[in-house]
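Practice problem: predict the structure.
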Amino acid sequence: MKKHNDDKAAWTMVRSYSSEAEASLAKGMLENYGITCVVNNGVIASVYPMTATWASIEIMVPKAQAERARAILDRREV
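Answer:
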């Protein structure tokens, strides 16, 4: 049996950030709304913080939750 994290095709990026703090806030907000999410590339940006422009931190969610996740993040950023 596959874990949900193993099936990369079932996940999609909903937002990318240039700082670990922003990505962490977005992840927490999505989780608060019951949306499963993972941070992708967070390790690279934390190791090389001055290079965050090329090492964006992506928030990934299951494709079925992507539309709702984007709507939640859009409301926060307005």
